[in-house]
């Protein structure tokens, strides 16, 4: 639930951790959210669970998984967790098996993990760095989708949500290769949605703008970075993870039953056309 706070004339939103919401449109559904122990992924996991889903949390570090699960369980939500580095096939297999054995199926897959190991001009990017970004951001999303398809095909209302970025449309300065990977995800969403439509599996993307998380600190923390960010954001503020998680819940729910292959941009009005 979002509350409005005004600081120095600027409107911010803060969230309160309501354990249940009156909107229970995901009741009876099972969701997997990758990279869900912090930031946007954590907020998506919480929101899906608040709307009634059973949610499998995961990320690379066990300590983070435990902390996130403990927090959400203490809020009365139905979640469990497992370690999963999305770039490791064994980890992805265990995530699949754990979801099957714990919840017996899957209705919602949110592919949220991404890395950006460097801040540099495109042609300063070393081959290994290019490979790492494409491996985690693009290839792992593709493999995760492919490996979870048999489980999703058993669902009556399967939905895949991919976390792209507004950088997919308008590359961030010095984040060129990351931006390219996010454009590839928009294309993956479009291409796979066409193939999976006849199976009844919807695939959609979210393209957040600059959202207040650890990942995006370099884009807003210093005065200079904040000034550049504000020059691009019509709404003149950084977004919050909770302003993305509601979109994920919508795309995962039957409220979006006639939407597939689309990307929803939530960026406070940044430029977002290819
Ligand atoms: P964040 O706050 O830094 O959270 C990162 C999460 O990812 C943590 O839970 C981390 O936990 C996990 N993680 C990192 N590498 C992983 C891997 N290889 N496998 C599995 N889990 C991994 O990041 P965020 O800002 O929420 O970003 C989430 C997604 O939103 C990314 O796809 C990002 O590109 C996208 N996005 C973010 C923004 C923004 O401004 N924040 C804007 C547009 C798009 P562990 O350390 O335990 O693995």
Automatic annotation (TrEMBL):
<dbReference type="InterPro" id="IPR036291">
    <property type="entry name" value="NAD(P)-bd_dom_sf"/>
</dbReference>
<protein>
    <submittedName>
        <fullName>Dehydrogenase/reductase SDR family member 4 isoform X1</fullName>
    </submittedName>
</protein>
<comment type="similarity">
    <text>Belongs to the short-chain dehydrogenases/reductases (SDR) family.</text>
</comment>
<dbReference type="GO" id="GO:0004090">
    <property type="term" value="F:carbonyl reductase (NADPH) activity"/>
</dbReference>
<dbReference type="InterPro" id="IPR002347">
    <property type="entry name" value="SDR_fam"/>
</dbReference>
<dbReference type="Pfam" id="PF13561">
    <property type="entry name" value="adh_short_C2"/>
</dbReference>
């Amino acid at each position: 639930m979002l509350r409005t706070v005004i600081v120095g004339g600027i409107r911010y939103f803060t969230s309160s951790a309501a354990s249940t919401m009156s909107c229970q449109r995901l009741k009876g559904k099972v969701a997997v959210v990758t990279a869900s122990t912090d930031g946007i992924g954590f907020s998506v996991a919480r929101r899906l669970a608040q709307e009634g889903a059973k949610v499998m949390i995961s990320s690379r570090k066990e300590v983070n998984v435990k902390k996130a699960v403990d927090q959400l369980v203490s809020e009365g939500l139905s979640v469990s967790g497992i370690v999963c580095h999305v770039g490791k096939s064994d980890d992805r297999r265990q995530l699949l098996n754990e979801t099957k054995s714990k919840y017996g199926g899957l209705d919602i897959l949110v592919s949220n993990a991404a890395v950006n190991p460097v801040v540099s001009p495109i042609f300063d990017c070393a081959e290994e760095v290019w490979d790492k970004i494409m491996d985690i951001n693009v290839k792992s999303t593709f493999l995760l989708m492919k490996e979870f398809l048999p489980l999703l095909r058993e669902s009556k209302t399967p939905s895949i949500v991919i976390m792209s970025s507004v950088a997919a449309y308008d590359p961030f300065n010095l984040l060129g290769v990351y931006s390219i990977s996010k454009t590839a995800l928009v294309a993956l969403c479009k291409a796979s949605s066409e193939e999976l439509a006849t199976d009844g599996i919807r695939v959609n993307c979210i393209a957040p703008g600059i959202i207040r998380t650890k990942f995006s600190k370099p884009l807003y923390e210093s005065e200079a970075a904040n000034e550049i960010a504000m020059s691009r954001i019509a709404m003149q503020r950084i977004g919050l993870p909770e302003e993305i998680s509601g979109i994920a819940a919508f795309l995962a729910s039957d409220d979006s039953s006639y939407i597939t292959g689309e990307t929803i941009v939530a960026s406070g009005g940044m430029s977002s056309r290819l």
